[in-house]
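Postdoc handover notes: sequence design on the structure in folder B. Input tokens:
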């Protein structure tokens, strides 16, 4: 078997399965490049990135540059003499000088069926748009964002109530298997690359905080998709009887209503039911009042008097 020397570029949980599988393979992961550790949570405690934790457990060197164009970083990567770079949700654009270092170039585990949803948030956008299918593409990294030829791809269904983190977990496991196959093919000189159809490309813009301040006077399915898609951050917010809250879980009901969009049409049986502008009803299953933990709707209703006819407002 031909063993390749690999530098792995990845930061979040999405990148972990691919890293773990490559470490366990006959190839050699000689370094992991992660974004810097950052403060997180109320205590602003420095949070070690998921890929750094995996690398440290395996005794693999970790590089966390603040600037990818610095000579010190580029020289460090070049000194490793990598055969291949593998990228998975690293979170930054890789400069040409870096792409040129591995002798076989770099490949990327991308969370969409390219050329659809090139860009920073492919899974979020697929869920927000109500897509019933997405997938993984293993592609060559080129200068233009997510525009390189594709080695292989596999589709994955999106369930009606699936959230972004749930879809990403499924995709990351499939991406790990696919990327190992491609690495094996590259090692043997047998990999086949298929150019993308640029005319069919769409772009998945980065998620912005203000997207969570949703207008509740819109179709129920649209609200449900936003709630599923804007996870784990920023989450969809609302205000009811003066109380601001975030929504963690929802589902579409079978019943309909003549109430206007955003109107509470039920608050019993542990479900907070809200009308969509299309007459469909959205059930809020798990909410988080400001300053408190996430809780089931029944617990929220037990502590907040909510009557039919109240209106959920933009928060």
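Designed sequence:
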């Amino acid at each position: 078997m031909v063993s390749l020397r690999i530098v792995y570029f990845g930061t979040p949980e999405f990148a972990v399965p691919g890293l773990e599988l490559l470490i366990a393979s006959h190839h050699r992961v000689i370094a992991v490049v992660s974004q810097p550790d950052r403060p997180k949570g109320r205590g602003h405690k420095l949070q070690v990135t998921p890929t750094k934790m995996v690398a440290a457990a395996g005794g693999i060197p970790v590089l966390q540059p603040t600037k990818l164009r610095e000579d010190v970083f580029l020289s460090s990567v070049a000194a490793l003499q990598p055969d291949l770079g593998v990228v998975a949700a690293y979170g930054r654009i890789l400069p040409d000088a870096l792409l040129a270092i591995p002798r076989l170039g770099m490949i990327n585990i991308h969370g969409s069926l390219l050329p659809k949803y090139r860009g920073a948030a492919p899974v979020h956008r697929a869920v927000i748009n109500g897509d019933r299918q997405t997938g993984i593409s293993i592609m060559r990294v080129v200068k233009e964002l997510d525009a390189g030829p594709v080695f292989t791809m596999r589709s994955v269904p999106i369930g009606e109530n699936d959230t972004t983190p749930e879809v990403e977990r499924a995709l990351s496991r499939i991406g790990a298997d696919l990327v190992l196959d491609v690495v094996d093919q590259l090692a043997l000189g047998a990999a086949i690359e298929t150019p993308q159809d640029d005319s069919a490309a769409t772009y998945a813009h980065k998620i912005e905080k203000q997207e969570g301040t949703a207008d509740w006077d819109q179709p129920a399915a649209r609200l449900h998709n936003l709630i599923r898609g804007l996870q784990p951050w920023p989450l969809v917010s609302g205000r009811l009887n003066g109380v601001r809250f975030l929504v963690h879980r929802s589902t579409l009901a079978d019943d309909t209503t003549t109430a206007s969009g955003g109107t509470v049409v039920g608050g019993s049986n542990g479900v907070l039911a809200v009308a969509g502008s299309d007459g469909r009803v959205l059930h809020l299953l798990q909410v988080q009042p400001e300053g408190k933990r996430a809780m089931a709707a029944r617990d929220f209703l037990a502590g907040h008097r909510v009557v039919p006819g109240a209106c959920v407002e933009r928060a």
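Context for whoever picks this up: The mean pLDDT is 96. Don't rerun without checking with the PI first.
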